[in-house]
Amino acid sequence: MSETTNSVANKDPILSVVDLSVSLPPRADRPFAVENVSFDVYPGEILCIVGESGSGKSMSSNAVMGLLPKPHVKVSSGQILFEGQDLASISDKQMQRIRGSKIGMIFQEPMTALNPVMKVNKQLEEVFNSHHLKLSRKEVKVKIIEMLDDVGLPDPTIIGDSYPFELSGGQRQRVMIAMALALQPKLLIADEPTTALDVTTQAQILKLVAQLQEKRNMGVIFITHDFGVVAEIADRVIVMKLGKIVEQGTAEQVLNRPEHPYTKKLIATVPSLSAKKKAPVTSDVVVSVRNLFKTYGSHKKSFFGKVGRVVHAAKDVNLEIRKGETLGLVGESGSGKSTVGRCIIRLHDSDSGVIDFQGQDILSLSQSQMMPLRQHIQMIFQDPYASLNPRRKIGDIITEGPTIHGVSKAESWKKAEELLEIVGLDKYALKRYPHEFSGGQRQRIGIARALAMSPKLLIADEAVSALDVSVQAQVLELLDEIKTKMDLAMLFVTHDLRVAAQVCDKIAVMKLGEIVEYGPTYDVFTNPQHEYTKSLLEAVPGKDWIVPDLVFD
Amino acid sequence: MNVETSTNQSQQSAFMAVMASFWFEFKQNKGALYGLVFISILAFIAIFADFISPYDPIEQYRDALKLPPVWAEGGTWTHIFGTDALGRDQLSRMIYGSRYSFYIGFIVIFFCLTIGIVLGLIAAFNRGFIENMIMRLMDIILAFPSLLMALALVAILGPSLENAMIAIAVVFIPHFVRLTRAQALSELGKDYVSSSKTMGASTFRLMFINVLPNCMPPLIVQATMSFSSAILDAAALGFLGMGAQPPSPEWGTMLADSRQYILSDPWMMGVPGLAILFTVLSINLIGDGLRDALDPKMKTAKS
Q1: Average pLDDT in the A476-499 region?
Q2: How far is residue A388's CA from residue A394's CA, in Å, rounded to a whole number?
Q3: Residue A302: what pLDDT?
């Protein structure tokens, strides 16, 4: 939310999209991916397009770039005016000249957007070569170093000489940005560029985009689903729903005084970063983990004499969860948070330590001794698409566990019906296959499956990370309801501090396999002790934006 | 709570919809459609051979030796495809021969699928020693030229159609083991398997109820492709005298019988040769179509 907002009005837009419609093939779920969309982008501003998945936000930017999957999806009416040309009606050849040189684009997956077998230098060189600029090799080299330096990469010569797999996700995204900006485009389109990144890296990339945009006075279209990111960098905001623009305005207006009910609903579901002070839970301890160690890789030499790399996924981890309590295990990717969850449920074998589950050390039990305990510990998985067997009916999926433990078919079937009702689905779902359900519905089915075993401890491994924000709010509400009703202990593994602030009683912050901070949520969020916790909280996008209390009419 | 609406379509129609979309995809591939038509006709002929065939396939008509087919000079309508050196009716032999082709194909595929799937799943579920033993054994089998290996096996077991089929199955099994293992490994990484494990599902249950159905599409494609290779290899073994024994009207054996007349009466080899060609081609085309329909991610990959 910068002061440029007010001055944009008297400049000419670099891009104006007028009444754009993009049609979908006849058998799609709706006739238009994008319908009668109009917006302008001015130089020196960041325009955020927000919406949930399927809202048409990526389709509108792909239309601008001429990247629609033709011939099935095409611009059916409207204009895309850029420098006096209508991009919707020019030939592919002309479009190619504009792409890259006048309009740059960065994508969500830095891993797939770079060619894995080509050094960074070479890929950047390609950008120059493909646009027939009359530059000598030497000039190009100098330019490349300059560009890599511009995007804040520490050793441009070394980075230039590396392959993409040798770089971290953040570095790759920086290389992508360098490539997109190589030819000084006037407009940059960024399609969820930070979604695949860790929160601290995300903060750096967002800062970089804002810096470069200001320096070069570019217009930026930034597509995201995350209102935190919007609050962090947007000058103006467009909210899309099912291919239509429902609201458009300055960031300040849209975020704090939304007009349209859909925007209001979306903003109301954004979890606030401020944790409420909760009374400590003093009931019985359900599980306590003491001195848990787990490493991946081995010290042994392999057949060819290579020494394996050892990664500590859990290093002296201690924690306990009480009845009716939710413990949040937060950290960035590779911190070992999921591993700890999977060690507790014995999906991974631990190296050493004690996991005391109601007086029994789980780690010392054999697989068959573990059997009766299995039903007490259940898990909800991250990816609702991979966690349900695509070839089995929902009923079979939910009743699998109870049948294994000797409950009769009829009885478990009846219970499954009740459970579906609890998670908000109707009982006809039992006879259908997973692909017939949306992501949120599948996650509900996953929850029902876990509950079918009447567990005492529920491990939610990034259970809401793959869901749209409004669906996420519903699933979180459901989890909370279930926890209270059934008096469950819950281990909530997440990378999202906003979600953690809302659902957890206690928080454990993990970094490289170690718990660096452990305490009641309120204390951790208001008065973090460890440097790492501080930097994590600092990096949360839109941390200064206080989610408004909205009145619904 | 915003409960998403559900359409109350019955299970039956859901299944029909899946089949309809499968058929729609399959139909896109015209070659596969032609292949299917040809194989359907062949299957019809094989099943009703007793009624269609004009003569007994092994009866010798001594007064009509090496009769050319009807379109060649001197051919007659009494023996449409002519007769062979012993005066047996070629058309009847071709008709009965189609039975052998299907018989070989189905038996070989049955053994390959069952043994290949079981070994592949065992390898995937027991990483380490057992897996290495199974996979290295398969590598050894693959290291031999397949026909040579089959020949050696038949030489040990003795020449007969049944032994030839066993030999061919052994040679093909490694492909199925590898494919099953690779598929199962990628499925094992998915969370629905983890979930079943947390329920306490047994290994047997994980293998056959959870993982196997998700590995089937590429296996079906592989089975189709191997069906034609089996027919081809059986014909080759027959040609070398190691497969079906005379007088059975197997196409490969027929080729072998007529080899010495290739210069004087080329049609005697031409008829069974073309039959093998078209059968194998049709099945491969069907395999391509199946792959496109069942396994979209393999569309551009080579077989």
Answers
A1: 91
A2: 8
A3: 56
In order of A106, A114, A117, A121, B209, the CA distances from A163 in angstroms are 19, 9, 7, 9, 42
CB contact under 8 A, A400 and B14: no
Residue A83 lies in a domain: no
Is pLDDT of A353 > 70? yes
Disruptive mutation site among B191, B207, B212, B215 for chain A (greatest number of A CBs within 10 Å): B191
Q: Verify whether the Cβ–Cβ distance B1 to A474 is below 8 Å.
A: yes
Using CA atoms, how far residue B60 sits from A313, B73, B94, in Å, is 79, 22, 15
Contact A433 B195 (CB under 8 A): no
Neighbours of B38 (CB within 10 A): 17
User: Do residues A255 and A291 share a domain?
Assistant: no
In chain A, what residues touch B196 (CB-CB under 8 Å)?
A: 389, 400
* Partner-chain contact B214 A389, CB within 8 Å: yes
Q: Is residue A546 part of a domain?
A: no
**Nearest Cβ partner of B194 from A375, A381, A453?**
A381
**Are the beta carbons of A377 and B4 separated by less than 8 Å?**
no
CB contact under 8 A, A474 and B214: no
CA angle B191, B197, B200 (to 5 degrees): 155
Please report which helix (H) or strand (E) contains residue A190, including its range: strand A187-191
> What average pLDDT does this structure show over A238-242?
92
Residues of A with CB under 8 A from a CB of B: 342, 345, 347, 370-371, 374-375, 377-379, 381-383, 386-392, 397, 400-401, 404-405, 424-426, 428-429, 431-433, 436, 438, 440-441, 446, 449, 453, 474, 477-478
Two structure tokens written together for B50 = 């007793």
Kindly indicate whether the domain formed by B28-298 is annotated with CATH number 1.25.40.10: no
Q: What is residue A248's predicted lDDT score, i.e. its pLDDT?
A: 92
Q: Kindly state the DSSP code that residue A298 receives in the 8-state scheme.
A: -
CA angle, A354 then A356 then A357, to 5°: 145
Q: Enter the tokens of residue B209.
A: 């109820």
Could you give the number of structural domains in chain A?
2
Give Cβ neighbours of residue A251 (< 8 Å, ≥ 6 apart).
A1, A5, A48, A230, A231, A234, A235, A236, A237
| CB A365, CB A376: distance < 8 Å | no
CATH number, domain with residue A248: 3.40.50.300
Integer Cα distance of B177 and B181 in angstroms: 6
Chain A residue numbers with beta carbons less than 8 Å from the beta carbon of B296 are none
DSSP lists the bridge partners of residue A82 as A15, A85
Residue A38 in any domain: the answer is: no
Handedness of CA B240, B241, B245, B249 (dihedral sign): positive
Average pLDDT, chain B: 86
| Nearest-CA distance A40 → chain B (Å) | 34
- Alpha carbon A154 to its chain centroid, in Å, reads 27
The pLDDT assigned to A305 comes to 58
| Structural domain of A220 | 43-58+93-268
A376, A475: one domain: yes
Measured between alpha carbons, how far is B94 from B77 in angstroms, rounded to an integer? 16
Closest CA to A444 of A501, A495, A387, A375: A387
Q: Which long-range contacts (CB under 8 A, 24 or more apart) does B192-196 make?
A: B192/A386, B192/A387, B192/A388, B192/A389, B192/A390, B192/A397, B194/A342, B194/A347, B194/A379, B194/A381, B194/A387, B195/A379, B195/A381, B195/A387, B195/A446, B195/A449, B196/A389, B196/A400
Element (H, E) at A369: helix A367-374
> In the predicted model, is pLDDT for residue A4 greater than 50?
no
Are the beta carbons of B197 and A347 separated by less than 8 Å?
yes
Are A248 and A340 part of one and the same domain?
A: no
Quick one: pLDDT band at residue B295, thresholds 50, 70, 90?
low
